[in-house]
C-alpha cells in the first residue's frame, strides 16, 4: 500500500521529534551528572592543599555557572546559523561538539595529577558545552514545533522538556547506582568518570538520527523572508526570558542543586541525597507531556501560570518539611515528587510558548537566546547563589526563597501577556498563520 501524504507527514514529524529531543537528553544528562557529582568534582579539581570544602564547592558551581553564561553566546552564534542555513546542519554540529566535550571530561587529569591545569581544562570543556547547549535548544525546538501537526505544538514542544527530565533521571540513576555498587573511595578515584564517558555512544546514536533528518518545511518556505525589526525581537526575547525564569530557577533548585544542599546543609549522605532527587525528577517527568497537551487546549499561559503560582505558595513549606527530622522518608519523597510535578507544569508548555513568540526567520536565534539568557542567570547561578548566600546568612531556607521569588516574576510576565482567541500568548513579532501552524 502506497503511503499517503498524511502518512509521510506523520513519519517526518515523529522523526523530527526524536532527532530534535535526543540531543537535549544528552545535554541534561551531563549537566545533571555534573551537578550530582559536584562535591566529588570539587574535591578532585578545586581543592588544592589548604583549601576548604565550602570554597571548593563554590568554585565548582562557578564553573557550572560559567558554562551557562556561554549558552547565550552559543544561542546567538548557532541560532544565527540556524536561521540562515537551516536547522539540520546546526543540530548536527552542536551534538558533535557536546559529545566530544562531555566525553573528554571523563578522561581529564585531576588536581593531584596536573595541578592548576586540571581546573583550567575542566572549565574550558564546560565552556564548549555551554556553547553547544546554547545552540541545541533553539534548533531543536524550531524543528519539533515546525514539524508539529496542526494543534499539537504544545505536545511536540513538551518533548524537549521531557527529555530534560529523562536526562536528569538518567544522570541521577547513574550516580545513585555508582554510589550503591562502589565504595566511597572507588567513586572518588575513578567511578565518577564513568557517566561522562557513557556520553560517547549516546552522542554517536544522536548524530546518526540527525544525519537522517529533513530540513523543516517552514524554513524552506520562509527562511529568506524579511526579518522583523531588532527592537521587536529584543522585546520578545526579554518577555520570553521573564516567562520561563521561574521554570529555570525552580527546576534547577529542586532537581539539581538539591543533592548538594542536602549534603552540605542537612548532613545527608551522598547516597541519601542522590536518592532524594529520583522522586523529584519522576514527578517532573510525569507531568511535562500532559501539561504540553493541556496547553494545546487551554493555552500556554493558563498552564504555566498555575505551575508558577504553586511554587510561590509551596516552596517554603516544602523545604521546611525536608528540614524536619520527624517527618517520614515516604512523606518527604512524596513532597519532592510534588515539587518536580509543579515545575513540569511550566516546562511542558514552555518550548511551544517560546516558539510562538518568533517568526521562522528569527526563531532559532530568538527562542534560543530567551531560553539561554534565563538559564544562564537563574539556572547556572542557582547553586552558586544558594551556596554562597547560605554561607553568608546562615539561613537554610534560601533555596525556597530563591525559587519562590523567581516564580513570582514569571507570574507577572505571564499574567500580563495578551491572549489570542484560542487562549495562547501572542507576542509583538508573532506572524499570522493558519490555526495550529508555527510560522
Q: Summarize the amount of helix as a percent range.
A: over 70%
The portion of residues forming beta strands comes to under 5%
Structural class: mainly alpha
| CATH architecture type of the largest domain | Up-down Bundle
Low-confidence stretches: 420-439
User: What about the largest sheet?
Assistant: none
Which geometry do the CA atoms define? globular
Q: Can you count the beta strands?
A: 0
Distance between the termini: 33 Å
What is the CATH superfamily classification of the largest domain?
Answer: MFS general substrate transporter like domains
Q: Output the CATH class name of the largest domain.
A: Mainly Alpha
Quote the CATH topology of the largest domain: Growth Hormone, Chain: A
Number of domains: 2
Rounded mean pLDDT is 83
Keywords: Cell membrane, Membrane, Symport, Transmembrane, Transmembrane helix, Transport
Family: Belongs to the major facilitator superfamily. Metabolite:H+ Symporter (MHS) family (TC 2.A.1.6) family.
Domain Major facilitator superfamily (MFS) profile: 16-421
Transmembrane segments: 61-78, 90-111, 131-149, 161-182, 194-213, 233-258, 270-291, 303-323, 329-354, 366-386, 398-417
Brief overview, please?
By secondary structure, the chain is mainly alpha-helical. It is 79% helix and 0% strand.
Amino acid at each position: 500500500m502506497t503511503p499517503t501524504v498524511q502518512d509521510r507527514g506523520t513519519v517526518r514529524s515523529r522523526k523530527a521529534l526524536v532527532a530534535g529531543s535526543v540531543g537535549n537528553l544528552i545535554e541534561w544528562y551531563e549537566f545533571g551528572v555534573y551537578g550530582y557529582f559536584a562535591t566529588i568534582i570539587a574535591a578532585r579539581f578545586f581543592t588544592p592543599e589548604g583549601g576548604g570544602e565550602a570554597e571548593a564547592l563554590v568554585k565548582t558551581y562557578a564553573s557550572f555557572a560559567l558554562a551557562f553564561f556561554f549558552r547565550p553566546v552559543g544561542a546567538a552564534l548557532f541560532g544565527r546559523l540556524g536561521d540562515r542555513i537551516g536547522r539540520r546542519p546546526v543540530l548536527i554540529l552542536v551534538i558533535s561538539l557536546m559529545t566530544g566535550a562531555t566525553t573528554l571530561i571523563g578522561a581529564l587529569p585531576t588536581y593531584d595529577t596536573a595541578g592548576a591545569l586540571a581546573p583550567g581544562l575542566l572549565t574550558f570543556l564546560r565552556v564548549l558545552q555551554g556553547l553547544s547547549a546554547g545552540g541545541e535548544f533553539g534548533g531543536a525546538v524550531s524543528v519539533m514545533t515546525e514539524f508539529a501537526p496542526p494543534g499539537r505544538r504544545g505536545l511536540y514542544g513538551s518533548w524537549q522538556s521531557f527529555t530534560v527530565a529523562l536526562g536528569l533521571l538518567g544522570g541521577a540513576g547513574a550516580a545513585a547506582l555508582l554510589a550503591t555498587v562502589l565504595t566511597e573511595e572507588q567513586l572518588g578515584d575513578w567511578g565518577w568518570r564513568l557517566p561522562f564517558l557513557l556520553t560517547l555512544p549516546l552522542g554517536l546514536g544522536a548524530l546518526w538520527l540527525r544525519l537522517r533528518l529533513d530540513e523543516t518545511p517552514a524554513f524552506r518556505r520562509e527562511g529568506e523572508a524579511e526579518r522583523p525589526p531588532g527592537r521587536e525581537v529584543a522585546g520578545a526575547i526579554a518577555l520570553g526570558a521573564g516567562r520561563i525564569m521561574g521554570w529555570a530557577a525552580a527546576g534547577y533548585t529542586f532537581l539539581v542543586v538539591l543533592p548538594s544542599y542536602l549534603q552540605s546543609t542537612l548532613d545527608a549522605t551522598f547516597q541519601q541525597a542522590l536518592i532524594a532527587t529520583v522522586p523529584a525528577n519522576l514527578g517532573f517527568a510525569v507531568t511535562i507531556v500532559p501539561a504540553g497537551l493541556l496547553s494545546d487546549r487551554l493555552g500556554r499561559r493558563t498552564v504555566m501560570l498555575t505551575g508558577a503560582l504553586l511554587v510561590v505558595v509551596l516552596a517554603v513549606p516544602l523545604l521546611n518539611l525536608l528540614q524536619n527530622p520527624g517527618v517520614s522518608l515516604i512523606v518527604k519523597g512524596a513532597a519532592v515528587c510534588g515539587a518536580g510535578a509543579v515545575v513540569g507544569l511550566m516546562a511542558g508548555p514552555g518550548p511551544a510558548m517560546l516558539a510562538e513568540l518568533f517568526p521562522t526567520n528569527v526563531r532559532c536565534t530568538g527562542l534560543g537566546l530567551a531560553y539561554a539568557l534565563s538559564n544562564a542567570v537563574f539556572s547556572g547561578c542557582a547553586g552558586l547563589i544558594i551556596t554562597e548566600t547560605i554561607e553568608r546568612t546562615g539561613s537554610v531556607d534560601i533555596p525556597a526563597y530563591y525559587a519562590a521569588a523567581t516564580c513570582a516574576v514569571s507570574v507577572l510576565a505571564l499574567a500580563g501577556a495578551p491572549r489570542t482567541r484560542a487562549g495562547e500568548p501572542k507576542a509583538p513579532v508573532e506572524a499570522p498563520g493558519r490555526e495550529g501552524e508555527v510560522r
